[in-house]
Amino acid sequence: xxxxxxxxQVAKAALEYIKGYAILGIGTGSTVxxxxxxxxxxxxxxxxxxxxxxxxxxxxxxxxIPVLDLNAVGQLDIYIDGADEINPDLYMLKGxxxxxxxxxxxxxxSRQFLCIxxxxxxVDVLGSFPLPVEVIPMSRSYVAREIVKLGGQPVWRxxxxxxxxxxxxxxxxxxxxxxxxxxxxxxxxxxVVTNGLFAMRGANMALLGGPDGVRKLTL
Length: 219
Ligand code: 5RP
Known about the structure:
Layout: H1 3-13, E1 23-26, H2 30-39, E2 48-51, H3 54-62, H4 70-73, E3 76-81, E4 85-86, E5 92-93, H5 100-108, E6 110-118, E7 131-135, H6 140-149, E8 153-156, E9 167-172, H7 179-187, E10 192-195, E11 197-198, E12 205-210, E13 213-218
Parallel strand pairs: 1-2, 1-3, 3-6, 6-12
Antiparallel strand pairs: 4-5, 5-11, 7-9, 7-10, 8-9, 12-13
Helix pairs in contact: 1-2
The chain binds ribulose-5-phosphate.
């Protein structure tokens, strides 16, 4: 199976876990795109979704699912999103698609976080995938220098502006032994909007798609 077929398989399996929920939190990325496509068949039972990006918003609207303002919805029952890496504690490294800030907001506002990913994303230690850090544009060079002091190698994601009008530094060369501590340290640098570590609020459950089927991980 190709990686995309694995993503599709896991996206389909996730439908089992949203039964009874009328409003969903929806992440961003190619795995989530498959999930949204599957929602088209269920749209009669879904009142709406809170979306983490323009890309997901457009896809949801295309299949007729109303996109709702998080402020009007309050706490969500479930947030479904992919990951660039996930470890055995269900901490994740996210933001390859640049939607990390809105993703983290919706994850925080949700009772459960269901991570859907192909099994190549499962790692013992986070950090092989470059860690995205969203920054206020004027702070970019300063934040980059602070990240170098922490041992990271920041690379400016050039010609890329987030949905929030900010820029992204992708931080290479990290072996993240203490994800919660690093998440907080990075977020304390002035100019950082947020970073792609989801350890303070990890996933509650993960579905990992592999050639032998879908594996479910819970804590
Ligand atoms: C976007 C994300 C995605 O969840 C992550 O990049 C995984 O994407 P994909 O499902 O395409 O592999 O964090 O900001």
